[in-house]
């Protein structure tokens, strides 16, 4: 399965929400990264046919985009779960099976996958936020879609629920294209094969986490500063981490100049998020 997105743009009146996005996606998990307003939801909404793009094309190599066949290979987890809270989990999934024209015998298997089998006959309004999120994922995966889109699925989940969700997505990802939008970049660590960075509707970068770290490490430096000097460094450099060490601080920062400080031994995805969405990117 491949998705070819070519020169995709979208306006809301005069506001450009997506600006000439071109991407080729094959099987695997993609993290769609960006701060609020970057265009993530707009992009996913176009991919699932909820809204229309103004220009550009989307092609999928096995089905025609937005045809009936497309909806059989596709699942969507919206930003806010759209659930009927007076139904039980079982009743809700029976309704989804009817909508998707699939056999109800998929329900038990799906509830087990999302770890909600014990809640099968519980009303949705009695579920915790994390359980509701998993039920929302259940409705999206019940037809075993080859394309799965999730809009900020980790928002509001505690660390254990986030870990559960990551494991579930990892287990589901074989032969599927999974796109997960998030501004919590750490959630993509050891999960996404590639990260797609959006800012103001534009594509900033599209690389694997390893490639990103390799290409950006050269801009990161580290040094130890005294408590008195810390504020001066924060004002002068783009500091991405501060770790107290006895009475001093170990700071990590990025700069596009050749600095006299040692380069960082390691940088992580959080450093990369700050690199792209801190003000340094606009100042380059
Ligand atoms: N229905 C709409 N009408 C007008 N402008 C909109 C509409 N939906 C989104 N926008 C604007 O388009 C831009 C992209 O919004 P979008 O919701 O796609 O971003 P996002 O990255 O998903 O943000 P968030 O992380 O806050 O969900 C923003 O500037 C937003 O204000």
Q: What proportion of the residues is helical, as a percent range?
A: 25-40%
Total count of domains: 2
Round the Cα radius of gyration to an integer and report it.
21 Å
Structural class comes to: alpha/beta
Determine the strand fraction and express it as a percent band.
Answer: 25-35%
- Ranges where pLDDT stays below 50 over 5 or more residues in a row are 280-284
Report the CATH architecture of the largest domain. Answer: 3-Layer(aba) Sandwich
Average pLDDT figure: 91
* Cα shape: globular
- Could you name the CATH topology of the largest domain? Rossmann fold
Number of strands: 12
Placed side by side, the strands forming the largest sheet appear as 5-6-7-3-8-9
Question: How many helical elements?
Answer: 10
Name of the top-level CATH class of the largest domain:
Alpha Beta
> What is the CATH superfamily classification of the largest domain?
P-loop containing nucleotide triphosphate hydrolases
Ligands, ions, cofactors: adenosine-5'-triphosphate
Strand count, sense and barrel status of the largest sheet are: 6 strands, mixed
Order of helices and strands: EEEHEHEHHHEHEEEHEHEEHH
* Multimeric state: single chain
Q: Termini separation (Å)? A: 38 Å
């Amino acid at each position: 399965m491949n998705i070819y997105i070519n020169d995709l743009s979208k306006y809301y009146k005069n506001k450009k929400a997506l600006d000439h996005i071109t991407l080729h996606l094959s099987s695997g998990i993609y993290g769609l990264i960006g701060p609020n307003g970057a265009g993530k939801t707009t992009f996913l909404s176009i991919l699932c046919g909820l809204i229309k793009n103004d220009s550009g094309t989307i092609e999928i190599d096995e089905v025609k985009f937005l045809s009936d066949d497309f909806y059989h290979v596709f699942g969507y987890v919206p930003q806010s779960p759209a659930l009927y809270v007076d139904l039980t989990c079982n009743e809700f999934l029976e309704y989804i099976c009817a909508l998707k024209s699939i056999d109800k015998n998929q329900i038990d298997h799906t509830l087990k996958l999302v770890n909600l089998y014990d809640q099968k006959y519980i009303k949705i309004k009695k579920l915790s936020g994390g359980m509701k999120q998993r039920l929302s994922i259940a409705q999206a995966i019940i037809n075993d879609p080859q394309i799965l889109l999730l809009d900020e699925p980790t928002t509001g989940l505690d660390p254990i629920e986030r870990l559960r969700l990551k494991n579930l997505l990892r287990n589901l990802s074989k032969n599927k294209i999974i796109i997960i939008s998030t501004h919590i970049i750490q959630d993509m660590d050891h999960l996404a094969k590639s990260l797609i960075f959006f800012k103001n509707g534009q594509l900033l970068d599209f690389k694997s986490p390893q490639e990103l770290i390799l290409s950006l490490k050269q801009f990161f430096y580290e040094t130890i500063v005294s408590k008195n000097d810390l504020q001066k460094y924060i004002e002068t450099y783009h500091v991405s981490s501060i770790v107290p060490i006895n009475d001093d601080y170990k700071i990590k920062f990025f700069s596009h100049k050749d600095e006299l400080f040692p380069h960082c031994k390691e940088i992580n995805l959080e450093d990369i998020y700050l690199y792209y969405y801190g003000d340094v990117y606009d100042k380059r």
